[in-house]
Amino acid sequence: MRYFLTLLFISTIILPFSAIPAHAIYLDERLGVTNSCGVYPDRTSQGDYLQYGVQKTRELGFAGLELIMVPRSLCSSGGGCYQQATQYCSGNKLDVPDMRGMMTLPQYQIAMSKPIKYFTLFVEAVKSTSLQQASIHASSEPYTQAEIDSTYKEVKDAIKYLLTRYRGSGKTFYIAPVNELDNRLVQSSGCLLNFPCDDVDVPAYSINHAINFLNTYARAIKDAKEEIPPEGVTVYLTCEINRVISRSMRGKTSAANDVIPHTQCDIVAYSAYETIMASNPSGVRQNMLESLNYIADKAPDHSDFPNGKNVMIGEIGYPENSTRTDVSFDKAAAAIQAAMDWGVVRLNIWTLLDQKCTKANPTNADCSGFWMIKPDGSRSQMYNYLRTTYSTTAPSLPPTNSADLNSDGTVNLLDYNLLKAGFGTTYNLLNYNTLRSQWGQ
């Protein structure tokens, strides 16, 4: 211990807090990026994956970050890219009692206490008695009251935790319990997602499941807010859909036509890759604008969005290394510009680090190119476009003290103990100098 403290004291002389460079890059605050997973960098040298992602998100100038909170993914060994909480897993199962317990894992607490203003949380319930998104298409049996009650309680407790822990932080949390809902619906017909699935029939039970599932979340979030009125923190239920052009606008049974109008979703998110399938950038722009208008017409009204545009882009990106002839950078850029011009609430780029590389510690050529940062550390074509087009001189940072590692409102011994436990992995000398300069505040 004495050696550890001596080392840290010496480090403050070598690298004082005043020498830490401030983030000089800021993008339009509606832009965010997803830190889902990635086979690089080498975690033995870079430390905790979530903390690395938060650091890079701020360095790139994004005000928003999407985090994956899916229990099976946090413990999964498949693909080698998630495994973000293996020290809390037992037999590939997350060893926490519920969603609130998952949110209080140290790496999530630390990540969400950092100066990121907007967090999209792709969440699933932890309890085996609660409903997960697969329940929408996996069974034709009606939901039981016990399943609904378990889900309601688990979600409500988690939202009450967010409202309490991040009170006064200036943060907004977009709670997204379903990824690409239309894909869940067509799966109930037996359609494989690597096929178009544009014309299959969606059974009524799947539509009913989707409505009940989302409204259970809506009721839990609403009741949590009534018990703990939000003060300096905002929580929205965000419902993601994806087959607007290919199904909804063709009059097919779909999330936009048959689910969203019957829910209390605060914001409708659009995974918008289909807009890029037009033959040229002009067609892409038209696709995006028509889709957003269609979604806005179907979305429930919300008092926070008096113009009726409570729509965000939940996911969009461009595979820079792709050899496909139907996608291009120009078309992806046209889709993003159209959405931003239309006035979306947020736009999340896929993704910070590429998750589809063919080997660990890859070269740039080993990956598909869905990235902001390449394996060699250089920035992607898409990021350079965003920086050139959407840079701003006005930072959008919540009033969070980055030295308050456990987010209890002060920098004290509890924060020091967290730093000490994670020194060399989660934290480094920069974190120590920040903590030291803010001690007692």
UniProtKB/TrEMBL annotation:
Gene3D superfamilies reported in the protein's UniProt record: Glycosidases
UniProt-recorded name of the protein: Glycoside hydrolase family 5 domain-containing protein
Record InterPro entries: Dockerin_dom_sf (IPR036439), GH (IPR017853)
GO biological process terms on file: polysaccharide catabolic process
